[in-house]
Specification:
single chain; alpha+beta; ADP-ribosylation fold; 3-stranded antiparallel beta sheet; 3 helices; 8 strands; globular
Length: 101
């Protein structure tokens, strides 16, 4: 199953090890991810003021960390990764230019 993680370019550029840790792993205990049909909504809600984001495509079967599908504040189910994301689980990374409001 493919899941997606959205990250700012400067945060992704700093990634240089075999394990990716987003700040939310320390603050909330997991890394927020999305299913493909949720990407546009997540970008609109949380990244509308950004010029660009990086969308990481992750093969969940390759993750070394546990993944749970859990409800969010909007009652939609999202995949949450409870640990770092190993580099070999990331199958693609795509920069996405955003139209700022």
């Amino acid at each position: 199953m493919l899941i997606y993680h959205i990250v700012l370019p400067e945060v992704w550029a700093a990634f240089d090890t075999g394990l990716y840790r987003h700040a939310s792993l320390d603050s909330e205990g997991f890394i927020h991810c999305s299913f493909a049909h949720q990407l546009d909504g997540v970008i609109e809600r949380y990244y509308s003021k950004e010029d660009e984001v990086v969308v990481l495509e992750i093969e969940s079967d390759r993750l070394m960390s546990r993944i749970l599908k859990e409800p969010s504040t909007n009652s939609e189910i999202y995949p949450h990764v409870y640990g770092p994301i190993n580099r070999d689980a990331i199958v693609s990374e795509k920069k996405k230019k955003l139209a700022r409001e």
